[in-house]
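Why do we care about 3D structure at all? Because function follows from shape, and shape follows, mostly, from sequence. That is the central idea of this module. The next example makes it concrete: a single protein chain, its amino acid sequence, and then its structure expressed as C-alpha cells.
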Amino acid sequence: MPNYKPTNSVSYDIVVGNNFKTIAEGCAAFGLKPDKRGWIIIAGARFENASKPDADLENVTLWFPNAKNNHWNNTFNKDVIIETPKDMTKNQKQLNKFLKTYELRITFLKDNDNYEFVGVYELDKDETKRLNKCVWRRVLSAFSSDLHEIKDYINQIRTI
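And the structure:
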C-alpha cells in the first residue's frame, strides 16, 4: 500500500522514499493507466495519454524501472541513472529518439517488493552523446500532487 495518495482536493508532497506496490497502483494515483504492449504492462505511462491531458505535462512520463531487468543494464545512484539496453542494436535507435525530444521522468525504482520514488529526471544530452548511453540526471527530489513544481521546472526550461 502506498504511503501517500494524491487527491484532487489536497496537495500532498511526494518525496524520495514514497512507494507503490505495482505500476498500475502508481499510475492510478496520478490519474493514468499504464502503457501496454499487448497484455504486457511496460514500465511507464505518459501524461499526454491521460483522460484529461495537460499541455504542460505532454513531455512528462511516469517511469517504473526495475533494478534487476533481463533487457536493460541500468546503473542507478541518487542523482544519475544510466540506461543501456542489453541488446546494443536497440541502443542507437533509443539514443536518437531521446536526443530529438525533451522528456522528464517521474521515476519509481523497483528494488525488492516496491516501486520507490527516487526523483524526477531529465536527459543530460551532452553526457548521453559522450557515453553513447542515456544519462538521466535528477532535477527534483520532491513535488506536490498537483505537479506545479514540475510544470514550473518545464516552463523555466522553455524560457532558456
